Amino acid sequence: MKIGITGYPTYGGSGVVATELGLELAQRGHEIHFISYAQPIRLRGQEPNIHYHEVEVSRYPLFDYPPYDLALATRMAEVAQLYDLDLLHVHYAIPHSVSALLARQMMADGPRGRRLPFVTTLHGTDITLVGLDRSYLPITRYSINQSDGVTAISNYLRDRTMRVFDVKREIQVIYNSVNTDVYCRCNNSGELRKEYAPKGERLLVHLSNFRPVKRVTDVIEIFDRVHKQIPSRLLLIGDGPDRSVAEWLAVQKGIHEDVLFLGKQDQVQDQLGISDVLLMPSELESFGLAALEGMACEVVPIATRTGGVPEVIEHGVSGFLADVGDVNTMARYAIDLLNDESKLRTVAKAARSVATDRFASSKIVPQYENFYRRVLERSS
Ligand code: GMT
Question: Ligand 1 centre and the CA of 66: distance in Å?
Answer without folding.
Answer: 25
